[in-house]
């Protein structure tokens, strides 16, 4: 039996409310603004680790466009816009996480503290990004499977999505533990580069990653609970939770990275002495002054 059929019979419904066109429009504009700003920051500084962040912002925009279309169709919703908003809003945070993981790997290198990581430095980014990709594939695949239009696909797709969300939470938890352990070791035994706070503001960026990770974790927990409750659950029956615990948190995360951009520690900055990194130039002057 198709999803549309169940909807007509009063069983399954795409939405248990009329999606807010105004709410979707507001977040389309908000995510458009921060994504355009991120794009400008990325190209200006050549900070390519921000690519997933920009792509994630685009997915958020497309997702809320899908919700706006569904709002205009109420109550005769069609499958296309519903699936677009469901999948794109679901997987976008996995791309945000990829930027966090890559920035952490660069921060470890920039502070010359590879020996302080829980796992070998060469595996840090690979492990976390691999987990992130797995989470992305599971969530996207589950959402895509639901688009076949059958009730069985809805149930099976939801289970796959739940697994993907828990994979994301597991890797985020491991990341937080790893980052905190690295932080503690670096504070107890600072490297020469980490002491140069003016040239490598690692504390500021590490706290930014903590904040961004916490926002994504709260959102992922919300999404996991939402899918565990099922289509008739309380959360899916109240649109306000989507905007308060997903849209708003993800927008806040993107703005946080606008304010404290990864390029400060990731992108090499040309100095007046040529193509060498400004940090290396300052360290050389430091040693010469001893």
From TrEMBL:
GO terms for cellular component: membrane. PANTHER family: PROTEIN RTA1-RELATED. Keywords: Membrane, Transmembrane, Transmembrane helix. This is Uncharacterized protein. InterPro entries: RTA1. The lineage of its organism: Eukaryota, Fungi, Dikarya, Ascomycota, Pezizomycotina. Pfam families: RTA1. It comes from Cladosporium halotolerans. It is found in: Membrane. It is a multi-pass membrane protein. The chain crosses the membrane at residues 20-40, 47-70, 82-102, 123-140, 160-183, 204-222, 242-260.
